Amino acid sequence: MQLRDVSCNQLPWLVGISERALAMESLLDNAVSHRKLFGILSALSMLLISGALSSRSLGKAVPKFDVVERLQPIAAEQDGAFEKVWVEHDVRVDGKKGMRIHARFTVKNSLNVECTLVAHFYTKEGAQLTGADLQGNYSTSDGHVVTYVKVTPRFNSSRYSDKSLFIPYREFNIKRPGLYLLKFILYLERYDRGDQILAKSTEVNFKYTKS
Do 93 and 188 reside in the same domain of the chain? Predict the structure, then answer.
């Protein structure tokens, strides 16, 4: 029906129809929007519930691991190993009374490379012995008591059946008389890699009597 054919009496009726049609369209749009919003909220709720359940199940299924820092590099297990360590007490060398440490060990992948066999000395509680003469042969640069000997493997895999180190008792720098429980650990270090540790022995406990 064209507008020019409509009488003045019919105009209010047509306007009412148009307003009701617009109102219905608005209601339909709102209903669709509400349905979409409801669908989105439902999906989010399901995701939150499933996430919480998954977290609880994972918490039960996955074991906890304690991180343990490794003090020795992996190379220590591959490139060297101590087989046996033993000690002679009350030995005299150049008139000095002390102890001689013997070691049987192997070293690999260090052909013609200078290495150091060194013993570090500790108290029973694990504190390093200090106070050594910094100008002597039994001290680190920070005054810890050590004794060492240089070795240069002549084969790609070399075995030393009895390499020995000596340390005079006086280098322990213990002043008060008495019986002391001490220990040492042997290290095999590679010089050209910044004294990388190739092997480490177990702790060797011993008694020292200061008279």
Answer: yes
